[in-house]
Structures
1.
Amino acid sequence: MSSIEAPRGRALACTEPALIRGPAGLHRGKAPGWWGMVFLIATEAMFFTILLTSYWYLRFRHGPVWPPDGIAKPELFLVSVMTPILLVSSAPMHWAELGIKKGRIWQLRLGLALTFALGGTFLGLQAVEYLTKVKEFTPTTDVYGSLFFAITGFHGFHVFVGLLMNLWLQYYAGKRRFDAEHFLPVEVVTMYWHFVDAVWVFIFATIYLSPHLWP
Amino acid sequence: MATPLALRLSERLEKTWEEPPGLGTWLDSVDHKKIGKHYIYTAFLFFTAGGIEALIMRAQLARPNERLLNPEAYNQLFSMHGITMIFFFVTPMLFGFGNYFVPLMIGARDMAFPRLNAFGYWIFLFAGIFMYSSFLIGRAPDDGWFNYVPIAGARFTPGLNIDYYTLGLAFLGISTTVGSVNFIVTIFKLRAPGMSIARLPLYVWAILATSFAVVFALPSLTIANVMLELDRRAGFNFFEVAKGGDVVLWQHLFWIFGHPDVYIIFLPAVGIVSTIIPAFTRRRIIGYVWLALATMATAIIGFGVWVHHMFAVGLPNLSMAFFSAASMLITIPSGVQIFAWIATIISGRPVFKTPMLFIMGFVFVFVMGGVTGVMFASVPFDQQITDSYFVVAHFHYVLFGGAVFPIFAAIHYWAPKMSGRMLHEGWGKVSFWLIFLGFNLTFFPMHIAGLLGMPRRIYTYHGGLGWDVWNLLSTIGGFVLAAGLLVVVLNFLWSLRAGAPAGSDPWGAPDLEWATSSPPPHYNFLEIPTVRSNTPLWDQPELREMGRRVHDLQRTMAEGHVTIGTTVVDAEPEAILPMPESTFVPVVTAIGVTGIFVGFLTLIYPVIVIGGAIAIGGLQAWVRPKEIVG
């Protein structure tokens, strides 16, 4: 295995004139920035994994009654509205990305605006929920309160950052800084937004649904 | 002699790639070679600090009932010694070598994200200063490097000590994470055409495995620190038993990070060993594929053994049996590596110059540490001996043997490439023997002291317990070791002024970094080569004259500030990647981030706001999309 002979012609075919003479930044594969976002998301996914694992660990170490201290099981109505809103918000984001890859700046701008409206609604409803929750318990009440606010708050912060990036894209879309060949920022923000949506499914299942399943 | 074409092109490349001189080159450089050197020098400063802390502790422990230090000072010293060596010396040192040599070994002109690279260095430096500033107010972290609750909670350690720890490590984590992502993407995308995954140098494999381990392990430490900080400062209850929290959660989260971290430290060192052995035995490494697989296997299995740090906690027997088995399992890839190295050495024609001596020292010391490691994988033995000096002896054999010996091998092996000058061979040998003997004299007696019942982390002890002589030997050994380290420093400084010129390839080594001049030009390679072997310099004679003759004009890319992007598995060219010019943006952004952490430490909120504003401004200047031309 020490020396592996390559098909020589293939290895040299690299110096394709079109590639070398093309404009700098021309790509066939995914850009390094795209890969960078993949691994940033991998490490972010671990943040949520560790938080949710801590939730399960503390929940089962705690004993039979969960939530403890007379806290009611999480109310499901509001979150059942919030969850579809957030999940659906991925669709216009995807549509926006497809649009700019075909050079349609209007499609990018419209998709971004729709996503912003849906994401903003989610965050607004989360604020409404917090206002009712704090009347019942806070992070300092007990470990359940700490977990609830830390995990949903950490996720909410990610949504907030996603909305800021959405506005940022909207601003530069207005200045025509993206087109069919220059869309990397759109691509990576879209990936981030899908991640933030997907991770909510696990938070929803853990924080909201599971207390109803295990009495 | 170089051909006129090569001369003309190298002049043009030099003009494109050089960075303007002055203070700027230090603050605004995005050149991976400069950043790599900054990492190495800074990490060495922290090594010195951690070493001085160790010597003070050894002086305190030289005799029974010594009164040099009070208990609180001793607690701070042993905590900061561990934190410094693990977080601020070994990893950044190995990242420094990675920064300098990964792009050279894969035939690239820089890292994939040069500005992120600079940013990572500044965060590392500022986080180190942040952590060490705790000594100024006499409140350094004092609950050990693994910082168990409840003693690290607000009730038992109300001072700022632990806030420095939690915030400092979360702060440093940014640097380690972005550095690792940068390594992965660089290795995935920037390899020279033809360097398929089966031709990756083993050092690069090791950096890749380490970086993956960081991406998946570090979040656990960061989350644990954030939880602890919320408990301490904001009244959260994660570790507060009276409010339903759980103290063992900290131990799990810490070691879910902590044990992979052992491999994060060890794997790049392994890569150094696999790099140096072929060069000094004059033969290809035996079992290239096995070594690459063992590297990845170690990184993965390393995630499944953390509970062996917790055998004395009182966990269920079933889970301990599982983790005991996993801990024995992980010795298999380590064994594969050791046997491959030994076989290579035996079947080759070894030349025992200084780098190779340090490698031999590594093999000896690391096997010793491995033997005691297998003993700890057995639950009953562990429960008897945990928290004794036997543990201290074990992990110094593993970490000093497994990481510091390879680091010193790397210093002697690679410094000529970085400075263009050789270190003195005779003094190199002197330093090796001082370090090797000093190391064993320091740490071997600790095995015995531990078996005689001496607990770790005690600031003094009574005479007549049978520990006196072993402690005195350890202290003498510590100072011999320090003398050996000093010889290395002096030898290095001497070499910068008076060392023999190294030439491009002083060792006759097989990897690409030796195909360019020493020190390498700003643009690394006059042309990006096509790689057809995993020992390219031994199999492709044309690479030896790469700086002097142009073989393929299109590969010089002298018109722009660019490098070649290739596909992930086969390394077929797919893009010309523009590289950023030098810029102050990374250092400014890092200053902003520092402001945020200082603000959280001192709870002066305007500092957080100002720091955040600077950081966001820096990010904006960094990622702002350029106007589309044409």
2.
Amino acid sequence: MSQEYDSRVNMHLDINNGLDRVIELVHTRLVESGWRDQVRLACRQLLTESGSSNISSVDELISTVTPKARSMVPDAVKRELLHEIEMILLNLEKAGYVKGFEDS
Amino acid sequence: MMPASGCEHFHRFKTTGDNLDTLKWIYLVFVVGSVSHLRQMKFCNSFCHTCRNRGPHLHACLECVFFGCHRHIRDHNDDAGHSFSIELYYGQVHCASCGDYIYDTDLDDIALKNRMQAKKFHKRLFECISWDPSEEERQLLTNQTKKVCVTPETTIGLRGLINLGNTCFMNCVVQAIMHTPLLRDYFLTKHHYCKSAQMACLVCQISELFQQFYNGEKTPLALPDLLHLTWTQATHLCGHKQHDAHEFFMATLNLLHKHYSENTQNQNKTVHHNNTGNCLCIIHQIFTGGLQSDVICQSCNGISSTTDPTWDFALDLGSVTEGGRSPCSLLDCLESFTKAEHLGGKEQIMCEICGSKQDSTKQLTIKTLPVVVTFQLKRFNSSAGVKISTAISFPEMIDMTPFMSKRKDELPVPSDNRYSLFAVINHSGVSAIQGHYVAFVRHHYTYWYKCNDDIITPVTLKDVLASEGYILFYHKQVLAYE
């Protein structure tokens, strides 16, 4: 059941490039709000403070920075993301699958 | 551009069989995702085979059909002994033998071709690459004859100012204002709609002055209108006497703020909050910082803090630092400026908690830093008319973090408080009553010019740093968002 539900949600998100659009939107918002610069600064700070001895690979850097970075995502961005996804799912729930794939 | 060659493991990998074709295909379908009939496939397969999540950092194994999130792709690397995986959002290839992401020219080629062919423009895929113009593009560029080439010798933005009779105090401040990066950007991009007569509004005049400065002409300018406006609006600067550049600077900021608020008030009601310090005018946005003053009572340890907005930091030169010597650098001055000061004897302060006068300590710290920090080194003792000519060294770059107030709510990432020098105003002459003002301004990043009224000469940074600074202008290096 849950898997079937999952695939339906996936279908929803895929129609009209919904997911792509949302991802691109969040990406833009994160850049605009300065989040990306902050994360960049945090990475730089980590590397200079701990030296290359403690953080030796990108993977390690990611796992160290991720919790901090997540906590810094502005609430407005989260709200907008939630709203966008809701809109996509609601609209498609109403319209059914009639729209189909935009460029197929 | 340097050719990047990945690790030896990848070299072996890409020369074996049709591995590179597989990579190309995965890139095309999953990273760029513009093959329309395969989009559904991308969609149905983009989840971690272990935990069924769509991320974070979904990778595809390049040696078998396996997709995994960041954690599980690494598990797969270990379990199956497969070295290479590709991150599906940005298209970076990871080598497990090296334990890190790798860079390789062949990979870059594949990436670039695929990005270019994508039907849709993906911003994320173009952010990390530099533009390497092709032969054809180079040709096109050379055929465009109209170009403005900014070289270190470019003098656009440099204009001398004629001395109208002891107006060097005005000229040097105007030079500093004209070379404030953020003010320049503001005035050259934003049109100022004004209701009052042109002559009566300082914002109009400064706006016009920016146009004059950056229109490419070289003849010196005379500023009678600006002087007239100052005389009528700031009467303490009136007359042909010599005046203090710092007073003029403060008066200018005040007037700019006042005229900005007055002339735009009716169009936009939200502009006007000048009493709360939250004014939206460009002057307040750039120059306002906050000074926190903590008074700690010695008997009850109660702290009372107040924060006051400020436009500049006036630093004493006469005071003695902890080592018992006079300050000889800007950092010394700032240290003594933010040092706890004992208030005893006659200076006892009424403590609200104890309800009586008590010995206490008072400490100033910087609560918020403005984008442009100006330091006035108090070289003039106004009562005695004596000038302190002590050499005070100042750095090109300064980190203000040590002088900031300690915050209780520590931010997850400390803010970047580095500032760089962009203008210096000097006073030459032995007394406060007589002398001459000269401004040093940073024109290009490392090119400095000395503006002595209508004579402008190039100087080195060393000359600037060795000069006897009076007002120092620092600009924030990394602008934060709000």
